[in-house]
Amino acid sequence: MALFWQNVANGLTVGSLYALVAIGYTMVYGILRLINFAHGDIFMMAMYFAFFAISIFYIPWYIAIILVLVATMLLGMLIEKTAYAPIRNAPRISLLISSIGVSYLLENLATVLFTGVPRQFPSIGSLQNSLVIGGVTIQQLAIYTPVVMLILVALLLTLINKTKTGMAMRAVSKDFETAKLMGVNINRTISSTFAIGSMLAAVGAIMWGQKYPQIQPYIGVMPGLKCFIAAVIGGIGNIKGAVVGGLLLGMLEIMIVYAQPGLSGYKDAFAFVALILVLLIRPTGLFGEKVTDKV
Amino acid sequence: MSLLEVKNLQVHYGGIEALKGISFEVNEGEIVTLIGANGAGKSTTLRSICGLVQKSGGEIVYQGKPITNLATQKTVEQGIVLVPEGRRVFPNLTVLENLKIGAYLRKDDAGIQEDIKHVYGFFPRLEERHWQMAGTLSGGEQQMLAVGRALMARPKLIMMDEPSLGLAPLVVRDIFSIITRINSEGVTVLLIEQNANAALRIAHRGYVLETGNIAMSNTGHALLNDDRVRQAYLGKSEK
Ligand SMILES: Nc1ncnc2c1ncn2[C@@H]1O[C@H](COP(=O)(O)OP(=O)(O)OP(=O)(O)O)[C@@H](O)[C@H]1O
Ligand SMILES: [Mg+2]
Is residue A123 part of a domain? Predict the structure, then answer.
């Protein structure tokens, strides 16, 4: 029974991490109708930022975290400004291709700058330590990750639903031109969307590094794909959907391997099977609205 | 005094010349209407004024200053608002939020609250439905919301692109009487209408736009009685 609960805790941790990264996909899609293929690589860069800040420059982790969040935010905004903003009015497919380009650029840039040698991700605070609850031994991370994720999601939903900035984001996501006619600054609104998505990916990256503490330039590819799938499962464009999709996918992966250890070699395939099933049964995802083309 | 002056404005869409150098002016406190057939360039004119369209020539002067190449956000800041063709309310925002986003650039919360009440006064239906997602409003209600939303910016110049489109005759009458009321409260109005008859009735002056050119201009009353206008736009035979 202890093993069962350990796996639940594990699934919850992985699921929360997926959720944090999936939100970035869903937000960018919501505002630009773009699947930002570079998002997984922004996640990877955040891991390197943390590695350099803590392991190379010996910056205390609580300061380093802030620096990493800010740096990742700036990276996301820079990518939007240079690779997406200039072709905003081009067909969607151009944006998509541009994001694939950025993805390759970041992966190769990381290989050149940081080499392909895997690095050890620094441990932060006591996150990797274990604790025993009712006879079940789990990592502290298993408590912190879902809590941090839920707090951030609550803040994000408040921002989007209750503030003027959030109202502008929702308006821009439906109609650029009319939002402009209201005096909304489209560029700034889109920029903030990338900033928020990238920052959440950075939080996910730091916690991911506590769980799987090895970094290399392609570390973002698989989590990136899976989180994109999580966003699609939840209904891309919908933030709550991304959270539920992430949690479901994380749980599914861990619990299937727990129930059928023989399948552990196929772990990474579950997400894709889940994606195919969702697309067949409910193409708009769990919480998705009907997909209509943008006016 | 002239609030808005459009001088020799030209607009091209790719190879098509949509506006071939039109000039007109709108004086402070006036209701001016542009009438013309489908595709004459009416919407293009309004969209150029608020910076949504690239101009290929000419000048737009507002309150004595050129605004030809100003970004849309800046023209809104200066008090020019557009009620766009086809309503364009934000379907995923509530009615109240749609009104609030109309006041996006304003900081005076008390004034905004006051103006929301004011708009509800014009359109009581919006108050009843303030919690509803704008996308689920009926077409006529959406049109009321689009007009109300524009008023929330406290504009000096309100430009309306076919505000009565698709409305029941009674509501059309309401919209026109509201336009006169807005105007009597000191807002200058530049109006486009398919319903040329009603527009000319309330307008001080009117311009007739024909495939990118101003073909005629006169007082609303004179145009209403002009034979050519009556034939071409009012669907009436000669007197
Ligand atoms: N974005 C665009 N790209 C290409 N051509 C355009 C574009 N917008 C308008 N046009 C063309 O410019 C001309 C003027 O269009 P505009 O929308 O200004 O007409 P309008 O007078 O408002 O007509 P209506 O009464 O039908 O609304 C039309 O021939 C139209 O096809
Ligand atoms: Mg038009």
Answer: yes
**Nearest ligand 1 atom to alpha carbon B209:** 21
In a domain, A116, yes or no: yes
With CA atoms as reference, report the closest residue to A13 among A267, A208, A282, A293: A208
Query: What is the strand order of the sheet B16-27 is part of?
Result: B16-27, B2-13, B57-62, B65-66
| Min Cα–Cα distance to chain A from B163, Å | 15
Q: Pick from A253, A205, A194, A264: which is nearest to A229 by CA?
A: A253
Assigned domain for A295 exists: no
pLDDT above 50 for A295: no
| Residue B33 belongs to domain spanning | 2-233
Spatial separation of the C-alpha atoms in residues A91 and A86, rounded to whole Å: 12
Count of structural domains, chain B = 1
Q: What is the CATH number of the domain that holds A11?
A: 1.10.3470
Reported as a single tens digit per residue, the pLDDT across B150-192 is 999 999 999 999 998 878 888 888 889 999 999 999 999 999 9
Are B92 and A167 a contacting pair at CB < 8 A?
no
In this prediction, residue A129 carries a pLDDT of 84
Considering the domain boundaries, does residue A236 fall inside one?
yes
Q: How many CA atoms lie within 13 A of B61 on its CB side?
A: 13
CATH number at residue B96: 3.40.50.300
Residues 6+ apart with CB under 8 A from A258: A3, A4, A7
How many Cα atoms within 13 Å fall on the side-chain side of residue B177? 8
Q: Which of B91, B92, B102 sits opposite A182 (nearest CB)?
A: B102
